[in-house]
Amino acid sequence: MISVYDNFLPANVFEGVVKKIKSLDFMSATNHPDITKDSHEHWPGVRTKLLSTVAETTDRIILKSINNTGNKFLWGAYDYKLYAHLKLATDKGEDYIHQDGDWDFAFLYYLSETNLNSGTKFYFNDEDKNNEHTLVKFVQNRLLIYDAKMPHCPWGKYGNNLSDGRLTLNGFGKSQ
Question: Could you tell me the CA-to-CA distances from 22 to 14, 26, 27, 141, 165 in Å, in that order?
Fold first, then answer.
């Protein structure tokens, strides 16, 4: 199941969230403090520390708004992680089909300007890029919530910096 919520936050709240996110430090998987040397976690681009530790108010705004969607994944208590993520045209490594580990659900929130040549592709399996079943295009202020076991892949790296790159919030949740 993939749920899409356009105009997720009111414009004035959205602008404040983006301003705060752009003020944070971003780091690669190789020097991110949440990644241990034994971790198999990696990603193209750069991401922030957990928003709950570096932007607590922003984290709470996003979490409360996500809970207000009434999405079935959010029925009951859950643990979560939420990061800001930036991908640029120059980031090394090909986008790859993957699932989000041991999480029950995941969510993506598109922050940068709308780019219809970017988005997220969902697949029937994680081995065949020709087996796509859904493409959700990158529209600013759009939230996606989906089953974390669903194979997916970011599509369309672009931009040269924080001002024009692919900026998202990436979240992961697990029922308690």
Answer: 12, 9, 13, 15, 11
Environment class of 84 (CB within 10 Å of its CB; exposed 0-12, middle 13-18, buried 19+)? buried
pLDDT surpasses 70 at 41: no
The alpha-carbon radius of gyration of the chain (Å, integer) is: 15
Average pLDDT, the chain: 89
The structure's pTM equals: 0.92
Which is it for the CA torsion 66, 40, 132, 116, positive or negative? positive
Gap between the Cα atoms of 153 and 130, Å rounded: 12
Q: What is 2-175's CATH number, 1.10.287.130, 1.10.3210.10, 3.30.365.10, 2.60.120.620?
A: 2.60.120.620
Beta strands at 142-147 and 105-110: parallel, antiparallel or unpaired: antiparallel
143-159 confidence digits (pLDDT tens)? 999 999 999 989 988 99
Residues in the chain: 176
